[in-house]
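REQUEST ID: PR-0412
SUBMITTED BY: lab tech R.K.
PRIORITY: routine
TASK: structure prediction, single protein chain
INPUT:
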Amino acid sequence: MTAALALGVAPRAVGRAHGDPADASGPLDLRRASVDQVRRSMRLSVRTSQPFHLSALDRHPDAGRRRERFICLQIHRHGHTFMRQLCFGKGPNGDDDTLGYAILNPDKSVRSWEGIDARVERPSKRSVAARFNPRAADLRPGKHRWRFVSQWTGPKCLAANRDAAAPRKRTERNRCFDRVPNDHFAKFTLHRVQPVGCKDSGPSPRFSGSADRKRIALTFDDGPSSYTPQILSILRHHHAKGTFFEIGEQVSSASGSVLKAGDELANHSYHHESYPSRWSMAATNRRIKSATGFEPCLFRPPGGSYNSRVVGDAKALGMTTVLWNVDPRDWSNPGSGAIYSRVVNGARPGAIVVMHDGGGDRSQTVAALPRIIKTLHGRGYRLVTVSKLLHQRTIWGEASKPKAPLVPWGFLNRPAGSAPATEEHE
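STATUS: complete
OUTPUT:
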């Protein structure tokens, strides 16, 4: 089974599930199993012949021992020595949202183990599914082989089995042990994927999102710059997302780090000019797409200056014009304390906050950001991308490297105001 790639607007790449006959005793007789890719995540799904409780399963079993109960995926990358094992079961605090992750030796004994975060679901009493980040299990893009194994225990599970090669030798086999597929490993290809676009929707311009949920979008203008990696690091460390409105002439192949971090890229004109032309918007989109493989669907006019022509041009290019309703005026360098206070005092459900990661000294914004995030999280807010706040649809596809390294146009020492003719042909 090979998982299909999540292209276009397909929310999930569904692979072929493997069925299995009723060939084992006990409740953990495996009847159906699958491994799929869902955007950047992997999804495991298993159905058994009878109901079972996760609390009855060992998340860190030794599959060679007959007295352990488990449902585990065993998976390895083609050509690699060590196999990975991911097992369902209750955590030490009774939590479901963890998978037991182990590295197996060539003889299937456990080399090391730990717990990894996952979103575990019980579609029915006879099934369980989990979605997780494959990197947490050191699963990298490429070709893999997998199968599920399960085992139940009890006096009815063990049965005498006479060795055909040595008739006098009797061994015990567990009739409650099962595998899917039975006689081979299934194939699975993990693709490297990323957002490649998003779907413009709703009215334009937008100053905020819906106030029915406690969500806020943090946005950053005038980058990329040397401050952008610092802001990305802070967002990642504090489990927050941001949207970066980038200036076309400053875009480089390093802009892809925004997407890799799970944040969002957007259009902020080519030269940071007031009332930018349609050409400026289109050239910025082309440059971002050439550098990262992503085509923005959000546009912000520099300084917030717009008219019907600007909004209409952006709409014609498939972009929603996005302004803001919380402005700490961090561009004026009022001090990190003032930036913090202005953001948290203005925070409301659905708010769009404007800050800056370029265009000057942004050290005060960097200093204020961790405290802003902690306070908003403490008040129960989720910090999401603008697209998520506005309920826009993300388009996913296979990640690709830029055709050629891009150098920010401003570094090429062109005369001020000269037209970047090569941009028309990128």
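NOTES: The CA atoms of residues 157 and 175 lie 5 Å apart.
REVIEWED BY: pending
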